[in-house]
Design brief:
Elements: H1 2-6, H2 17-41, H3 49-69, H4 73-85, H5 95-112, H6 116-135, E1 146-152, H7 159-169, E2 170-180, E3 187-195, H8 201-210, E4 214-221
Helix pairs in contact: 2-3, 2-5, 2-6, 3-5, 5-6, 7-8
């Protein structure tokens, strides 16, 4: 009986045990690659350990499904009916999460159909693209990392003193909004800054607080731009 079990399934197109084991192990290892890349590159607010684990389980599950469905239309329809009963209500808040899910599904399909070279090369290319997008911050449009708002109670002619302070702390400073009082004695300013050292933002705010004429100072990090 053990010999019959090791020879493969009793089906119209039996799957040899070594091929099945190779497909599942390879799907697991490649799922680990995508999961680790996701863990390293994810910087959103919707991180979930359960989602990371699903990136490892999905390719193995899909590979197994492809093995079960091989050369069996009847089994395929039966499996579709079973999956129709299960409803997944989890909503992915990040579109990049969806890309990771699709990557693991395709890798699992490749392993399940015994296209091992395609699976390895596909995982390598997809992983490389995800790392490239993370390392280069591809798609990011803003060129600043700090938003500064303040009230300048001195004449606008004395703004160069403020600008020199900002230049000392930032590579680039751009006035996003300026509201000048009717008599020119005070100004509400909003700056977009690219800091030389983002970790020293508190030092910048401290120097601004000590600067005569600068009041109502507040700053916020510009992590990402909203997309409309």
């Amino acid at each position: 009986m053990l010999e019959s079990f090791l020879n493969g399934d009793f089906a119209s197109a039996p799957t040899p045990i070594p091929v099945l084991a190779l497909a599942l192990i390879l799907a697991f290892l490649l799922g680990q690659v995508i999961a680790w890349i996701y863990m390293i590159t994810h910087d959103g607010l919707s991180y979930s350990r359960a989602f990371v684990v699903s990136l490892v389980i999905l390719p193995v599950t899909v590979a197994l499904v492809m093995m079960v469905l091989a050369n069996s239309l009847v089994t395929a329809f039966g499996l579709m009916a079973i999956f129709a009963v299960v409803r997944f209500r989890n909503i992915l808040r990040d579109t990049l999460d969806t890309a990771h899910i699709l990557a693991t599904i395709v890798i699992g399909m490749a392993c399940g159909t015994q296209k091992f070279t395609t699976a390895v090369l596909g995982a390598t290319v997809l992983g490389g693209i995800l790392l490239y997008a993370w390392l280069t911050r591809f798609g990011r449009r803003h060129h600043y990392d700090f938003i500064l708002n303040l009230h300048w109670a001195r004449p606008a002619a004395e703004l160069p003193e403020l600008n020199r302070l900002l230049t000392r702390h930032s590579r680039k400073a751009r006035i996003a909004q300026q509201r000048l009082a009717s008599d020119g004695s005070a100004t509400d300013l909003s700056y977009h800054l690219l800091l030389r050292d983002p970790d020293r933002a508190d030092e910048l705010l401290g120097e601004l607080t000590a600067l005569p004429g600068a009041t109502d100072i507040n700053g916020v990090r510009a992590e990402a731009e909203s997309e409309i």
